[in-house]
Amino acid sequence: MPSHMENTVKEVDNYAIVASFYDYLMRHVNYRRWYRFVADVLKRNHVPDTTLLEFACGTGNMLLYFAKAGWSVVGVDKSQAMLDVARWKLSEYQSSAQLYNGDMREERIYGEFAAVICLYDSINYCLDEQELQRTVLNMLNNLISGGVLIFDICTVNNCSNNFRNYTEKEFFGNKDYTRKAFFDVTTNQQVNEFWITSIPQNEIVFHEMHVQQIYRIDRVKEMIEEIGSCRIDGIFENYTRRPGLEKSDRVHFVITKL
């Protein structure tokens, strides 16, 4: 346990505090490359550069790329704190992006979009198969006929090799945080915990616990096929056109609504 655990610990919602340093935490992510991959997939699937909805849009990095490319974009995220960062970022660009506080797992229609995306293993926050299947269906229901859904999943291989027993301690701005990650091979659940203090007022330690369910590729494929009225056009390895396999770290699903 972190050394500051003798202080008062306050449980907070996912990303309530992490949002303030999320972009620093994810500074290793090549969002430009990720955008180019997604944009290329949409182009190859003849999706017009018109309307895009992103579930679990976070701090708006991907939305910003699409807005700059001329798309009309809408972002949805469960965390209001993450949306506040996204709103500031998009307003700096003077984007007309619309942002909504909402849970991707809840049935809700935000409009009819040419493209729907859900990236950075956000869909792994669905903790059982019924929840995941319902979430994918909800995403499809926000697409026009012929529209394309792209989401990615984290693999067992990635969790086992990179996050089975992982610890980092960092300072950013006025935040001191410790992150601990572990992977439960019996349940295939990935857990990321954060203990965060503000400097110099460090009497309270904020604690966030993030739990994700890690699914096998073939099972996700079966769940999509069970939905019907859609077609899997590709299962790709991280940012590439290579086939997505269990040995991959991340796998993207490309699905067309029929």
Describe this structure in words.
The chain has 258 residues and is of the alpha/beta class. The protein folds into 2 domains: 3-21 and 157-213, N-terminal domain of TfIIb (Single Sheet), CATH 2.20.25; 24-154 and 215-257, Vaccinia Virus protein VP39 (Rossmann fold). 27% of the residues lie in helices and 35% in strands. It has a 7-stranded mixed beta sheet, sandwiched between helices. Helix 5 links the parallel strand 5 and strand 6 (143-154). Helix 2 (31-44) crosses helix 3 (61-68) and helix 5 packs across helix 7 (217-227). The mean pLDDT is 94.
Task: Name the descriptors.
Rossmann fold, alpha/beta, 7-stranded mixed β-sheet, 35% strand, 2 domains, N-terminal domain of TfIIb, single chain, 258 residues, globular
Q: How does the SSE layout of this entry go?
A:
Blueprint: E1 8-11, H1 22-25, H2 31-44, E2 51-55, H3 61-68, E3 72-77, H4 80-92, E4 98-101, E5 113-118, H5 129-141, E6 143-154, H6 156-162, E7 165-172, E8 175-184, E9 189-198, E10 204-213, H7 217-227, E11 230-237, E12 250-257
Parallel strand pairs: 1-10, 2-3, 2-5, 3-4, 5-6
Antiparallel strand pairs: 6-12, 7-8, 8-9, 9-10, 11-12
Helix pairs in contact: 2-3, 5-7
Give a count of the beta strands, DSSP E runs of length 2 or more.
12
Helix content: 25-40%
Q: Structural class of the helix and strand makeup? A: alpha/beta
Mean pLDDT metric: 94
In percent terms, what proportion of residues is strand? 35-45%
Please give the order of strands in the largest beta sheet.
Answer: 4-3-2-5-6-12-11
* CATH C-level label of the largest domain: Alpha Beta
CATH superfamily of the largest domain: Vaccinia Virus protein VP39
Tally of domains = 2
pLDDT < 50 stretches: none
CATH topological fold name of the largest domain: Rossmann fold
How far from one another are the termini? 50 Å
Tell me the overall shape: globular
Major sheet attributes = 7 strands, mixed
User: Rg from C-alpha positions?
Assistant: 18 Å
The sequence of SSEs as H and E is: EHHEHEHEEHEHEEEEHEE
